[in-house]
Amino acid sequence: MFISSWYPTRFLPFNGDFIQRHARAVALYCKVTVIHIASVEQNKKIFIEDIENNGVREIRVFHRKIKSHFGIIKTFKNFFIKLQSFKKAFSIIEKPDIVHLNVLFPAGVFALYLKRKYKIPYIATEHWSKFLPESAINFTNTELF
Prior knowledge:
By secondary structure, the protein is an alpha/beta fold. The protein has 3 helices and 6 strands; from the N terminus they run βαβββαβαβ. A hairpin with a 2-residue loop joins β3 and β4 (56-64). It is globular and about 45 Å long. The two termini are 25 Å apart.
């Protein structure tokens, strides 16, 4: 199973398209399901798209954008609606053998949740160029968490 913070949707068709291509390549060798959570300007609280696309089951869960002006309140509301959305998507699939996490935040929270609750191991692929040795920006490991 792939979990990704970025993935193409009908609202953002090129968002994370490289992750979609990766999922399709992996699907040539094993069963792949992708779960992607996105916020949109909609009236419905949560709605799910569940489609088969080039050998990959793509589950996209859309939730209404949080409209709070207070940063910490908006952050907590956003986290809980994303968690609720993810749980809905996870409830309609069979338990995966492994999770491949792409783009660590915020999807990494769900990979960690699956590891702790269901003992499903995960691997992470981060696409941020800041981690490259050639990057002019240096930081310590403590800045990651």
